[in-house]
Model the fold of this input.
Amino acid sequence: MERRQRLSRSRDFDAVYRRGRSVSTRSITLHWFAREDDPDGIARVGLAVPRAVGTAVARNRLKRKLRAAWVELELPPAGRDYVLAARPGLAEAAESRGHDWLVDELREVVGKVTA
Done:
């Protein structure tokens, strides 16, 4: 995932949380917000992995796995910012069930946005 495809500033995260919408599955919540200033721009994603998910090592490992799984998805609609919020238990599930399961989970939650 390229750097320009990521959300990094807290004001971008705040805009997604405050003005956006959300859908969730048992293990992931996806918040999204359509950017009016760049409706045809590349979709950007930010990751929110709280301490409840695990230790710093587990959270960083999960972030790497989520980025890799996001890249494998068909590109979500352009001109939107997304925030993937992990729920407690996702790190263990991703570790035990593997990469394909994580890609399927992301595909499911992104499918709720585009449906």
About this structure: The CA atoms of residues 27 and 87 lie 5 Å apart. The chain has a mean pLDDT of 90.
